[in-house]
Amino acid sequence: MSEAYSSKTNIYEHGIAVEDDEYPKSLALIATAKLPIYSGYSLSIVDFNEQSLNERAVHLADVKGSCYLADYYEEHDLRYCVLATLYHLNRLIDLYVRLTQIFERKHPLGTATRGNTGDPRIFYEIDAFLGASRRVYESIKDVLWKHYHYPGATGKWNSFRKVVKSPHNIPPLLVTELDKSWKAFGKKLADYRNCVAHYDPLNDGETTCWMNWHGDRWGMTVKLPANPHEQSRSAFDFDSGPEALSYCHSVACHLVELCESIEAQMKVASYLANPRMD
User: Fold this and answer.
1) In this structure, how many other beta carbons lie within 10 angstroms of the beta carbon of residue 240?
2) How far apart are CA 150 and CA 168, in angstroms?
3) Cα dist from 93 to 18, 55, 69, whole Å
């Protein structure tokens, strides 16, 4: 699937695409074609301050000078996982926009008050996003072990959850940040990913995408269950769950910020700024 956007296009929540300075009231901007996009993407995804996540992500693991590639595997792997996460979010946004525009053409203003469509690709990309974003936490774990484990320590951490329980030499403020990140984002993300991988898909047996009016524009809503830890669609609570695109966007914003925070730590920043070729 390939999307071509005007250089004036902004994308808001629910897949609502607008031109120039129009904007749907009360909805957050999530992507734009007005900023540099970078190869492989059709949009520049933006954070809550409307700054490019694409640009921030490509500058992760920015080594200052020539280096041996093997010396930076962990940092480059982390950037890879973040970029994969943004890639799947980009594809999800493309699908939201395309399906919403098709629905708008078939049901113009005044012809319906609510509706739905269906496309399993929405759920394919949600699943892919959850897997890629969950991997970011495990790549973070590897970067932290590389820079902060006790000299002579063996075995590594076998999961991100073990990092805050046995932080070795990680600075205390960073340990607190990692703990807050896991509690606010990582735990629910892990529950979603584990449910998809080992139990039930995150739907009610159908791939329904609901259409509702947002001002004078159609927008799409796909609900994720509020309780993925139940691991069974018969117990899922969709009514209280998050909207999928908004949830994925918030996760992506947080993960880029977290990775930048890790790379700003004195020990990691110094390693990136002073490559060793001896």
Assistant:
1) 9
2) 6
3) 14, 18, 33
Q: What pLDDT is stored for residue 200 in this prediction?
A: 95
Residue appearing with tokens 């030499």:
169
- Which letter does DSSP use for residue 186 in this model? I
CB under 8 A, 24+ apart: contacts of 264-273: 265/147, 265/171, 265/174, 267/147, 267/148, 268/75, 268/143, 268/147, 271/147, 272/61, 272/62, 272/63, 272/64, 272/72, 272/75, 273/64
- Which of 231, 265, 263 has the alpha carbon at shortest distance from 72? 263
**Torsion over CA of 128, 129, 132 and 133, rounded to 10 degrees?**
-160
**pTM for the full predicted model:** 0.95
Residue type present at position 60: L
Q: Nearest Cα to 31, choosing from 52, 49, 59, 4?
A: 52
Residues 77/142, Cβ–Cβ less than 8 Å = yes
| Integer Cα distance of 261 and 180 in angstroms | 13
Yes or no: say if 223 and 243 are a contact pair by the CB < 8 Å rule.
yes
Burial (CB < 10 A; 0-12, 13-18, 19+), residue 192, is buried
- Report yes or no: 61 and 72 within 8 Å, Cβ to Cβ: yes
Percent of the chain with pLDDT over 90: 84
Q: pLDDT tens for residues 89-115?
A: 999 999 999 999 999 999 988 888 899
In the block, residue with structure tokens 């495990």:
138
